[in-house]
Design goal:
Low-confidence stretches: none
Bound molecules: nicotinamide-adenine-dinucleotide
Largest sheet: 7 strands, parallel
Number of helices: 9
Distance between the termini: 33 Å
CATH class: Alpha Beta
Mean pLDDT: 97
CATH superfamily: NAD(P)-binding Rossmann-like Domain
Shape: globular
Helix content: 40-55%
Order of helices and strands: EHEHEHEHEHHEHHHE
Number of strands: 7
Strand content: 15-25%
Radius of gyration: 17 Å
Length: about 250
């Protein structure tokens, strides 16, 4: 139970990768705040965590809204008195080739994927600073490193997350706060379920390991980055991608 007594906040934890992260951190002993815009599903995740014997609450929060985020963090401080772990996982896609991409497609993705990370980190890091300890993990993407046709907004948001991670890692290194990113490859979740079968087959061919990743593959990497095993690791991008990008 390496995370016993720790309080973790996972955004976008109602399903997919965020849910797998929330469940694994709880299995390792952490109390977990499940935050998502999908409140019903977030409640289901929180219930599963309570059934494991850990404390959990579900909160309906849009990470793109700084006021909602600030209220979320105040609620967590009232209920749990501390925050040890923040996993910025909430993310969306609005894929289109550039010439068909609207300003709205651009803003929606940047607002959730990049501004959301800024909002949550800023609200949480003040408390971690006072505690003089904390672990923050930002879920970026392989697409932020290598680009992908049809995802200019998404790739820019995830590359932004990487630059943001390295910068705040420097700003808070002396406060005992480790801030890292994970760049998952193609992971089997509702986000990638919508990909056409032909695209999935093509991807399989490009992935040296010959399979899509599972949410648990990402969760295990998060566990490393929030545990004591990574105390001397900060400002890094950990690729969890079956070898598709090295
Ligand atoms: N699936 C992949 O292949 C893959 C690859 C690389 C990176 N990622 C990243 O991993 C993260 C999780 O992706 P996933 O595949 O589990 O996606 P998903 O769509 O299954 O889950 C995303 C969750 O985020 C929530 N969410 C969306 N907008 C939100 C908002 N404004 N505020 C709060 N919550 C919000 C959704 O309700 C959902 O529960 C995302 O940041 C995504 O970009 C996914």
């Amino acid at each position: 139970m390496e995370l016993l007594g720790k309080v973790a906040l996972v955004t976008g934890a109602a399903q997919g990768i965020g849910k797998a992260i929330a469940l694994l951190l709880a299995a390792k002993g952490a109390d977990v705040v499940v935050s998502d815009i999908n409140f019903e599903k977030a409640q289901e995740t929180a219930k599963e965590i309570e059934e494991k014997g850990r404390r959990s609450i579900a909160l309906k929060v849009n990470v793109a809204d700084p006021e909602e985020v600030e209220r979320m963090v105040e609620t967590i401080m009232e209920r749990f008195s501390r925050i040890d772990i923040l996993v910025n996982n909430a993310g969306i896609t609005r894929d289109r080739l550039l010439l068909r991409m609207s300003e709205e497609d651009w803003d929606a993705v940047l607002d959730v994927n990049l501004k959301g990370v800024f909002n949550c980190t800023k609200s949480v890091v003040k408390h971690m600073s006072k505690q003089r300890s904390g672990k923050i993990v930002n879920i970026a993407s392989v697409v932020g490193l290598m680009g992908n046709a049809g995802q200019a907004n998404y790739a820019a948001s995830k590359a932004g997350v990487i630059g943001f991670t390295k910068t705040v890692a420097r700003e808070f290194a002396q406060r005992g706060i480790n801030i890292n990113a994970i760049a998952p490859g193609y992971i089997q979740t509702p986000m990638t379920e919508v990909l056409p079968e032909k695209v999935k087959e093509e991807l399989m061919r490009l992935i040296p390991m010959g399979r899509l990743g599972q949410p648990e593959d990402v969760a295990q990497a998060v566990l490393f980055l929030v545990s004591e095993a990574s105390n001397y690791v900060t400002g890094q991008v950990l690729n969890v991608n079956g070898g598709i990008y090295m």
